[in-house]
Amino acid sequence: MNRGIEIVGLGKMLPAACVTNQQIAEQTDTSDEWIRSRSGICTRYFCKEGESQTDLAAGAAANALADAGVRAEEVGMCIVATATPEYVTPATAAVVQKRLGLPEDIPAFDLNAACTGFIYGLQLAAAMLHAGTLQHPYVLLIGAERLSGVIDPVERSTYVLFGDGAAAAVIRVSDTGRFLCRLGVRGDAEVLYGPTKEKAEPYLHMNGRAVFRFATETILSGIALLEAESGIAAGDVDYIVCHQANQRIIEHVQKKLKLPHEKFFMNLQKYGNTSAASIPLALADMKEAGLLKKGVRLFLLGFGGGLTKGAAYMEF
Ligand code: COA
């Protein structure tokens, strides 16, 4: 078990427009029934003109700082986990530094581990906080995506699944809350990739069945790893928070492990798959719902493009 970190504030930001399955079905050859039964998704949010991935990132970060009661000048590092940055350069994190008035003597950078980005960021935050190299005591870790810009309305098997959004966590060293994290990757540019200008393919491509298999294997092996290394059985943690890609993926794992449905937090019904924003969005909604009381124990499981994977144990 690593030395501890704790999340002292959470915040989210969504685009103004909530898009229903019915609205999607008016543009694409699909139906509300197909989307609900194959994914569990009912609505998602899409940015409109004038809304950017950077706006979402900065808004979520400001809300997380307010929730934590932490001032901008107390932030020692800013990481934005994203696969859909507004610019190649500057990094979204650099623009957030300016907009929020974060100090200049801090590292601020983007991290692309696709849907596993938030868990990669947690591990980096823990390492940097415990290395003692940061000038200020808090890490601002943001997951922010504008996936609506990279999904093809004509490609119905991807278009219906994704959404835009951002959520952020304010993190500090903890003397009591334990933390364990394991990361990995199975390099693959065929199962889930894009967009790529090289191939003149501006959209995301996915082999749904192969990703489904990778996701269920990754969550199950991640839980087994966390159980072995933390000494805590999955049945004894308060919640298991998986990347919110698809209700069927999560239910497959739940049934396999014979655990109660309620142990797996889910909010993908509202947001669809928001990639790096999905786990912090789940945490932000759990906090709003009063589920993250002091002492709550969580398993976090991520998987996604890369193909990346990550598993973390956290205590609140
Ligand atoms: N609406 C209606 N029909 C659709 C559709 C849509 N949006 N998308 C695909 N279909 C059709 C297919 O064309 C196919 O038709 P056919 O049988 O006539 O060829 C049929 O539905 C079944 O397609 P299939 O791909 O086998 O469906 P599935 O049961 O595997 O479900 C996914 C597709 C994408 C929902 C599922 O594979 C999945 O959830 N994969 C994981 C995706 C994921 O989580 N990605 C992100 C990871 S970070």
Question: Can you summarize this structure?
Answer:
The chain has 316 residues and is of the alpha/beta class. 34% of the residues lie in helices and 26% in strands.
What keyword list fits this structure?
binds coenzyme A, five-stranded mixed beta sheet, alpha/beta, four-stranded mixed beta sheet, Peroxisomal Thiolase, Chain A, domain 1, 13 strands, 316 residues
Can you walk through the features of this model?
The chain has 10 helices and 13 strands. By secondary structure, it is an alpha/beta fold. The chain folds into 2 domains: 4-174, Peroxisomal Thiolase, Chain A, domain 1, CATH 3.40.47.10; 179-315, Peroxisomal Thiolase, Chain A, domain 1 (3-Layer(aba) Sandwich), CATH 3.40.47.10. A 5-stranded mixed β-sheet has the order 1-7-6-4-5, with helices on both faces. The chain has a 4-stranded mixed β-sheet with strand order 8-13-12-11, with helices on both faces. Strands 2-3 form a two-stranded antiparallel ribbon. Helix 3 packs across helix 4 (92-100). It binds coenzyme A (COA). Residues 30, 34, 38-39, 115, 156-157, 160, 206, 208-209, 211-212, 215, 245-246, 273, 304 line the site of coenzyme A.
Q: Catalogue the ligands.
A: coenzyme A
The chain-level structural class is: alpha/beta
Regions with little confidence, pLDDT below 50 for 5+ residues: none
**Total helical elements:** 10
By oligomeric state, this entry counts as single chain
Q: Which overall shape is indicated by the principal axes computed on the Cα atoms? A: globular
Count of the separate structural domains: 2
The topology string of helices and strands comes to: EEHHEHEHEHEHEEEEHEHHHEE
Strand order of the largest sheet: 1-7-6-4-5
**CATH-defined superfamily of the largest domain:** Thiolase/Chalcone synthase
Q: Please outline the major beta sheet.
A: 5 strands, mixed
Proportion of residues in β-strands: 25-35%
